[in-house]
Write a structure and sequence with these properties.
This protein has five helices and five strands. It has about 180 residues and is an alpha/beta fold. Helix 2 runs parallel beside helix 3. The longest helix has about 35 residues.
Length: about 180
């Protein structure tokens, strides 16, 4: 996922989408919008979504349903999600959301400063994680090309004949094996 991946905001009310866009615009990230759970899932499955800010209760496919589906699909299971609710504190909702791996649950109306802070942290952490995964794949590819890593490739160089009484490797006493010391 490139560094220009977007933040997808999802809510069934246009005024809430506008408020969320306004709150996030100072960050300078690309922001996409969807007005329902189905549209959100389609957008997430297309790729390019780094973070989801998602309303819990929407007609049709709700926010928790979107998260449940995302967590079952390999390409979307690690996308951070911030859930929004306008129905006040709810212990059951909170427990369910965090059990699904939601990063945070915010009450509406959302404090723009708090939202920006959380989004910035989660977005940048996700980008760092993806960058490290990319580097790891590249390193594994390089190691895979190294002759010593290929079991069918050439064997390591033979050090030649061993002269009795001489160690195979300088600095060792017994031909390269570790010396064991016995204590009385």
């Amino acid at each position: 996922m490139p560094s220009d991946a977007k933040i997808l905001i999802v809510d069934d009310h246009e005024d809430t989408l506008y408020a969320l866009e306004s709150a996030l615009s100072p960050l300078g990230y690309r922001v996409g919008r969807a007005t329902g759970g189905d549209a959100a899932l389609k957008e997430v499955l297309r790729g390019q979504v780094a973070l989801l800010v998602l309303d819990v209760r929407m007609p049709g496919v709700g926010g928790l349903d979107v998260v449940r589906y995302m967590r079952r699909v390999e390409q979307t299971q690690h996308i951070p999600v911030i859930l929004l609710t306008g129905y006040g504190p709810d212990a059951e909702l909170t427990a369910t959301a965090f059990a699904l791996g939601v990063a945070d649950l915010l009450m509406k109306p959302v404090d723009p400063w708090a939202l920006r802070t959380k989004v910035r942290y989660l977005y940048e952490a996700r980008q760092r994680h993806l960058h490290l995964e990319r580097e790891l794949r590249e390193l594994r590819a390089l190691v895979g090309k190294h002759p010593a890593a290929d079991p069918g490739g050439p064997a390591p160089a033979d050090p030649g004949p061993r002269i009795p009484g001489q160690p195979r490797h300088p600095g060792t006493r017994d031909g390269g094996r570790l010396e064991q010391r016995r204590t009385p």
